[in-house]
Amino acid sequence: CTKDITSLNENPKAPATVPATALFTQGQNTLASNLSSANVYLNIFRLIEQQWQETTYITESNYNIKDNKIPDGIWTAFYRDVLEPFEQAKANFASSPTLAAGTKKNSIAIADIMQVYSYYYLLTTFGNIPYTDALNIDNKFPKYDDAATVYNALLTRLDADIANLDEAEGSLDNADQVYGGDVASWRKFANTFKLKMGITMADVDNAKAKSVVEAAVAAGVFTSNADNANFKFATNPPNTNPVWVDLVQSGRLDFVAGKTFVDALTTSADPRIGLYFTKDAAGGYSGGKIGTKNSYDAFSKPSVALTAPNFPGLLLDYSETEFNLAEAVERGYNVGGTAATHYNNAITASILYWGGTQAAATAYIATPSVAYATATGDYKQKIGYQKWLALYNRGWDAWVENRRLDYPKLPAPANPVSDFPVRFNYPVSEQNVNTVNYNDAAAKIGGDEVTSKLFFDKN
Amino acid sequence: QNINVTGKVTAKDDGLPIIGASVGVKGTTTGTQTKTDGTFSLSVPSGGVLTVSYIGYAPQEVTVTGPSLNIVLVPSAKQLGEVVVTGALGLTRTRNQQAYAAQQVSGDEVSKTRSSNFVEGLSGKVSGLEIRQNNGLGSSTNVVIRGAKSIFNSNQALFVVDGVPFNNGSPSGSTINSSDQRTGRGGYDYGSPIQDINPDNIESVTVLKGAAASALYGSQGANGVILITTKKARKGLGVVVNTGVSVGAIDKSTFAKYQKEYGGGYGPGYEDPSGYFWYRDVNGDGQPDLVTPLTEDASYGAAFDPNLKVYQWNAFYKGLSTYGQATPWVAAANDPSTFFQKAVSNNQSIFITSGGDNGSFKLGYTRNNDSGILPNSNILKNSINFSGSHNITNKLTAAASIDYTRTDGLGRYGTGYQAENVVGNFRQWWQVNTDIKQQKEAYYNSLAQGENGNATWNLSNFNDPTAIYWNNPYFARYQNYESDSRNRYFGNVSLNYKATDWLNILGRVTVDNWNQLQDERRAVGTTGVSSYSRRNTGWNETDFDLIASVNKNLGNDFNLKAVAGTNIRKQRYQDLYAITNGGLVVPGIYALSNSLNTPDAPTEADQRRQVNGVYAGATLTYKNTYTLDGTLRRDVSSTLPKGGNAYYYPAVSAGFVFSELMKDQDWLSYGKLRANYAEVGNDAPIFSTIDTYTLGTPINGAPQAIINATKNNPNLKPERTTSSEFGAELSFFNGRLGFDGTYYVNKTVDQIIPVTISAATGYSAAYLNSGTVQNKGIELTLNGSPVRSKDFSWKIDLNFTRNRSKVLELFKDASGQQAQNLQIGSFQGGVTINASLGQPLGTIRGTDFVYLNGQRVVGDDGYYLQTSTANNVIGNSNPKWIGGINNTFRYKNLTLSFLIDIRKGGSVFSLDTYYGFDTGLYPETAGLNDLGNPSRLPISKGGGVIVKGVKEDGTPNTTRVENTGSGLYGYETNPNAAFVYDAGYVKLRQALISYSFPQSVVSKLGPVKGIDLSLIGRNLWIIHKNLPYADPEESLSSGNLQGYQSGAYPTVRTVALNAKFTF
Questions:
Q1: Does the pLDDT value for residue B80 go beyond 70?
Q2: Residue ranges of the domains in chain A?
Q3: Residues B725, B675: contact at Cβ < 8 Å?
Q4: What is the DSSP letter of B1036?
Q5: Which residues of A305-325 are buried (b: 16+ CB within 10 A; e: fewer)?
Q6: Angstrom distance (rounded) from CA B510 to CA B548
Q7: Quick one: closest CA in B to A143, which residue?
Q8: So what CATH class is B108-248+344-415+478-690+702-910+985-1062?
């Protein structure tokens, strides 16, 4: 008998090849989930930014990121579960014998934009990370690259992607759960994100930041909430917004509003308070004390809207774009308009996004503590403070902006295990399985500590 | 003139009947064998001579003088070398011809413990064999011979029943438990399928320890082999009936003890003026009332005070006598140790055998019904064994056997970190003011009220009785339970052709088939999401064997035993798993259709493997003294890449029975030296050469594909183990003192491992040929008979095993960079189990204390400093050595034996103390401080604790820290190393008293030929251990991830009574 028995080793229940679009969708879904998640093994930035506070299990509110191996969670969730699917999607698009050339080019460019976007969060979380060696299974010990260098490389990639987009050609269609494959929207998204990247690096390389920002704005950025990049989570599990899974479906009572954040909203009679949170037992709004145990019963909770299973995952929005433009004006970049106008547009966009009215927004921005002319501090403080309020539910971005703009100054939690984390430790798994490169990377930043400042965080 | 003679053959040394002695009429072919009681009957010519012989005894000739005879055989150590030993493939060799380490345990030894899991009966009895039992009902047993060799693949011994492999788990043979279960993320321990073997059907167990002994089995035998020979029919009719009952209760030294000073809460900071209680208007009088912080699963609350009245959980369920009432704030009268109930088992078996000149048959039935220490737990096992053989001609024998075992499990214990593990709840997250008896009452009361039964102590709020983190433990047991059933068929048909007196040819087809259904339920009202899931698993292995064997004397001095054969092995594992999505619609209906949202597609697995093997071997013996043995097998496996999937296993052994040359030395009864070398190979896990994707549930109509986390490898080579062994067997003073010692070195190279790699590669792991693990060890057995007389004897057996493993190499990349560490398992708490370069296989890594001159350093804040990295080696799961001491005393018909089982060293990480010390459940977390004040008082009132250690400058720590709330003793402020314990133990594993009714009594009972009564104790006493509140042997599951406990079940002390009747 000469039958080749090794054919038994072909799995009859799992395909060896899949459509590139299925990989793209999976990557996009995971990316949106990572950024939306409230899972204490992955995304604790709402707590770090004191928008929320824990009730009984308060370790993360006190900056403990080790017990739940959060860095490991982030590392895997981005490299393996987001970047690699996009990488393979790009390769499969490229090698597809049936796909039209234009569709191919657009699809690859969009997947690449998603990768650039993903790397941004890794860079601003850890600093130096594997990049040139990353996503290469033949290299089991990827070395770490300098964060600023990678950042510049990403900008170059983004420009190339923008150049490759062609509105006249086919695209991803329904595989893209953000824009349905609309190429014009992706062009706008890419330029808006380019603007964001430019602003993020403004403190370290002002000249480059200026040219990046001006080019992006000239090419066209978001002009209304209609441009927002919303990932469409499903109404029924399993593809729902993870916040619903963590807060509602689990039946757990882990989170209440954070005192710091609620107090800030209350002080200025922010119209978003009832859109962000539920009322507390006393019929008002209150937040749990930061870093201590809190009764779930006593405090305001995240609002019903944002805990819905199909609450969209916001990847990039008009409000932050206007804040970035306001800052660009203050920095003397040629982007048009005044800082105050952009600032007002940003706040108004945020209020409208959350379901507030134009009238409420108008009244709010007229409040002396809010109005650009009269609010406290320099532009960094004014913009930083309002951006923090607007980046509610987007803790990861709030954390980046909070470190960069140094405002607001968040009070220390009750029992912090460290100073305010300005980066995350590298994962335990890197210590165990990529030891030499890990040690090298840790040495380069003066030790793998949460207090080592990252490349974009000057002061 | 023939007369009917009946007789009995007994041994001179111990007076016991000899079973299976040959009795023949001299000068004729007439003959028989003695039965299990030593008796025989035979028709003999008057004045004829009987020859009586048995291995190990001097043969005797007896002249028939009357109708009844009593024959006493005298032991002859000179005969020891002729004892026939079963080896690989069921081939027999005499002891003189055996040049490798093997140890035999009789079936009686195994079955007399009356445990439904026969493997437990081997613990402590065989050197080189490490058995770790888990305490759950029907849970899995870890069986490793000569240490773990493989970093990733199974290290479990291969079980072979009557010559054919018996599956003990998934295709990797390791376990049927899920990976989540093995890494402590929850799930049930579904046991080891080897438990399907009926202990009463076992004639003997032989442990083949080294590769040379097992190389003929191919890759399956790489981890050593446990050969099981089932009972065979003897001439005449034999009937054996066993009936027994056992009762078990927990060993309290292996369960949590609770502090009785402080109730529920995480410390001050709640609502009332004291800060320890909620302050809410419960009775509607407009005034706030004291309420237990109901959501808080810890015991760092207010100090108990019987005069303080508090609305506790039992005030919030209608129908309870305490409903709507504040009750005294006191420690519970019934702590969780009262949750456990008596484990009760009963066991009945009957075996009927019949043998004649033309064939024989055996029919057996066993029923085993075990209920566990947790409510609503039961495993019922029914086994039927049938075998028959028929001599078609003098030369041709046809035989067939079928074993059927059905196991029905109900309410197996939840394991690891999940709500279904009530013991994890009791050990880690609990309010010590919660009374278990009241929880029971509340559960039944809730059902009586027409509610869902989950009247938990851990309510979401006083006006919202939904369980938040923990269910009522009775609800957890009675409503969130699993059930399972497994049908197993194991059988073969064979034809044996004895071509000549020296050549035998056997053809055989064996089928091992089981299918299992697992149903898991989470009732409406549970914490988390209610659900129903079912898993159907099927296993089939079919083996085709053709074996030719030769046994021929070549001249007067040489004997040749040879074998050649072929084996085709086909395995198929199928699995289908489906679960409801998002909850159940109708309470109490456990059907996939009762799903709130459309269920995702079931996950499916269909894995096949085929291995084609050919082998040959020869044993050449010169003058019964010098033996040279060689075997060679070639396997072709379907799991390795085409063209590179054939591999060889050569083995060569040499033996020298020097006592044959020293026959004049009376003190030396037996002496043999042996040496061997073998290489064995192993194929790859199924589907590890080709990458595939998992298809996910589409989102809004868009399909999704998930990349598998492990990168496969189309270039895998077989992994190889080389093994060398040197040993000596000695026996002195007419066999009264015996010694067997072995030194071995095993090296496993090119290990096939899904190596954990940096996730920056895009994968969590990649299959690689990577890593060399060396195991070196010593095995010793010593047996002696200090007293040996007709009425009284004392036998003592000692065994000792010392294995040292070391990871010699890990993989290198193309640039030569070498991995320093392979992560084998990652656990809650940031602890990992690893293969670290230069370290034993199975190091425990995590955060450690910072040390200064050997002292723990305390920081300025008064808490221990911790390493910033979590890759410090903080333990090693391997024992330094293991051993067993078995003593047997016999006085006339009364036998007393006891077995002490020892494990020295090794470590275990306890997630139970990691959390439980944090949440203040244990006495260590309360009590008085160095000032004589309650440590839980604020420092300002004389409380607080100064942790032991030195400051960074080396002077003793003097900083007092608060102990008013959770954290001081547990995970929040201590490194992982604080929860690593010595896993050594000394256990009285087994004690047995048995009494055989004397023949004078039994003979009056008609057909009854023997009655044996036994009283058996198992796990009676842990004489010594260092792990507090738990059994150091307990682990999550069998498999390679040992050294981690989470929600560990207590040891069950069992006493069994059994009666055995022989007809």
A1: no
A2: 20-58+65-239+310-444
A3: yes
A4: S
A5: ebbbbebbbbbbbbbbbbbbb
A6: 17
A7: B760
A8: mainly beta
Contact partners, residue B862, CB within 8 Å, separation at least 6: B946, B947, B957, B959, B960, B961
List the single residue in A with minimal CA-CA distance to B687.
Answer: A9
Query: Is residue B12 predicted with pLDDT exceeding 80?
Result: no
- List, for residues B697-732, the tens digit of each pLDDT value: 999 999 999 999 999 999 999 988 899 999 999 999
Distance from CA of A183 to the nearest CA of B (A): 18
Considering only alpha carbons, which residue of chain A is nearest residue B293?
A295
Best A4, A7, A13 member to test B by mutation, with max B CBs in 10 Å, is A13
Distance (Å) from the alpha carbon of A186 to chain B's nearest alpha carbon: 19
Q: How far apart are CA A370 and CA A368, in angstroms?
A: 5
A1 band by pLDDT with thresholds 50, 70 and 90: very low
Q: What is the DSSP letter of A22?
A: H
Element (H, E) at B793: strand B792-809
Q: Mean pLDDT throughout B379-407?
A: 93
- For residues B912 and B908, give the distance between their C-alpha atoms in angstroms, rounded to a whole number: 11
The confidence score (pLDDT) of residue B173 equals 54
The continuous run of DSSP H or E covering A324 comes out as helix A318-330
**Which residues of B are less than 8 Å from A8 in CB distance?**
608-610, 638-639
**Could you report the per-residue pLDDT of A342-388, keeping only the tens digit for each?**
999 999 999 999 999 999 999 999 999 999 999 999 999 999 999 99
Residue B618's DSSP bridge partners are: B562, B630
- Strand order through the sheet with B278-280: B278-280, B289-291, B305-311, B326-329
Structure tokens at B806: 């070391």
Nearest to A273 by CA among A257, A252, A251, A255: A257
Residue type for position A385: Y
DSSP B942: T
User: E strands, A352-456, where?
Assistant: none
SS3 B404: strand
B445-497 pLDDT, tens digit each: 999 999 999 999 999 999 999 999 999 999 999 999 999 999 999 999 999 99
The structure tokens 């909430």 sit at A225
Q: Which residues have a Cβ under 8 Å from the Cβ of B844 and sit 6 or more positions away?
A: B831, B832, B833, B834, B873, B874, B875, B876, B877, B907, B909, B980, B1043, B1044
Residue boundaries of the structural domains of chain B: 2-75, 108-248+344-415+478-690+702-910+985-1062, 261-330+430-469
ipTM (interface pTM): 0.95
Instruction: Write the pLDDT tens digit of every residue in B789-812.
Output: 878 999 999 999 999 999 998 888
DSSP A203-221: TT-HHHHHHHHHHHHHH--
- Chain B positions touching A295 (Cβ under 8 A) are 270-271, 278, 293
Q: Do A293 and B707 touch (CB under 8 A)?
A: no
For A6, nearest residue in chain B (alpha carbons): B638
A20-58+65-239+310-444 belongs to which CATH class? Answer: mainly alpha
CATH-assigned architecture of domain B2-75: Sandwich (2.60)
Q: Which of A80, A233, A449 sits opposite B764 (nearest CB)?
A: A80
SS3 string, B172-203, reads CCCCCCCHHHHCCCCCECCCCHHHHCCHHHEE
pLDDT value, residue B764 = 94
Whether the predicted pLDDT of B172 surpasses 90: no
> Which residues lie below 8 Å from residue A199, measured CB to CB, with a gap of 6+?
A209, A213, A324, A327, A328
